[in-house]
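Q: Hand in one record:
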Amino acid sequence: MMELFFKPKSVAVIGASTNPKKDGNIILQNIIDSDFSGDIYPINPTAPEVSGYKAYPSVKDVPGNVDLAVIIIPAKFCVQAMEDCAAKGVKAVIIEAMGFAEVGGDGIELQKKIVAIAEENGIRVMGPNCTGIVSRDIATTFFPMKNVPKGNVVLIGQSGLLAAGMASDIVVNQTLNVNKICSIGNKCDVNENDLLDYFGDDPETEVISMYLESIADGRNFVKIAKRAAAKKPVIFLKGGRTEAGAKAAMSHTGSMASDTKIVEAAIRQTGCVKADDFTEIKDFAKVFSTQPLPNGNRVAIVTAAGSVGVVVSDICAEHGLEMPKLSPHTVEKLKDVFPPNMPPANPVDLWYSIEKLGLVKTLETTLAAPLEDPGIDAAVLILAGMKYTMPVLDEKTVQKITAQYKKPVIVCMLVGYNEYKNRIMEELGRDLPVFTSILSGVKALSKLCEYGVRYHRKNG
């Protein structure tokens, strides 16, 4: 049944509008602009056509089958729309209208009626109070959305922010190679367990990120998450961890926030990767989706400033990463680019070599040699947003080196001019995780190493 949400052969938009500023028009246009090749049916009781497609007064009037219905009308009319969907034989519905359990009172009763109709007629419902799905195959969000990547990351959220604002950010800025983004809102039917089970087996999905304010069925969640996390990373952000957050969750999606200690125990038990905010959901997903899983947690630091190497070493140690000595073979390789009175070590200090050879030639030795070292599992590369760094971008030096040695590398950028920093973020950031914070970068790498060790231990 989940397949009907993501790969339907026909879709009806109940509330399709002729006004380009209305949500019902934007949703319809997003579906048109996606790669969706099935039948599209605007439902509008007063307009003969919408966006060039013949419109119908009710979903019951549509001549063909309807796999998926997207409902974007006032909450008080949604019960009738659900009854029409049931009469038509629709089996998947996304309700993007607000005004249900999250507002209390009559909204709770409306949501109960929708659930009753769905259960009686075998309909799966996503929402209400959600922004649906964003993908290359079909996009139902009411934020304008074009050119969605065909990537390997899925984001699941009990939040419209994920399938609307964050999706726009990711798609427009090309910051994450997403495959699908799902907003599940109040979770009156379809919940995290349904989607985690579906994407855990989906061959197009390699990384799953989740934001939840409550867990529908904790025991089932643990079972499903454990199975999924054994095959692919599952990144988990829990909202409502404090009393203040729990109150906010109740007014946001009408959810009773789950007990924090129980949730954290479940995360440890399942092998999910814990994130602490929305930025970390993206950061961790970027690292997991672009970098190979390391066999261990031994890290080399490559930097042009000794003081930075000291601080990065501290942060690595604080996050469970080891800073081993370089092998004699690696030290021998590095000797030619180090001054005679400065023996090569970890962190690897680049400055002398940069002045002598330039950054491209320097990295071909100082980044390549540690990555070749069998005692090193990953590397942290510190770059500056300066003109001397630009040839590295032009020649894709870092990408070539990392592709050759197949070990994870994260890039941190501390200083420089915006002109050059922006180029590093945009150009290098398309292929590798680039951070403006050492702490964020090292934390993301530590999560990758922790998961990698566990994954290789379990899977040989």
Q: What stands out?
A: Residues 355 and 362 are 9 Å apart (CA to CA). Confidence is low (pLDDT under 50) at residues 249-257.
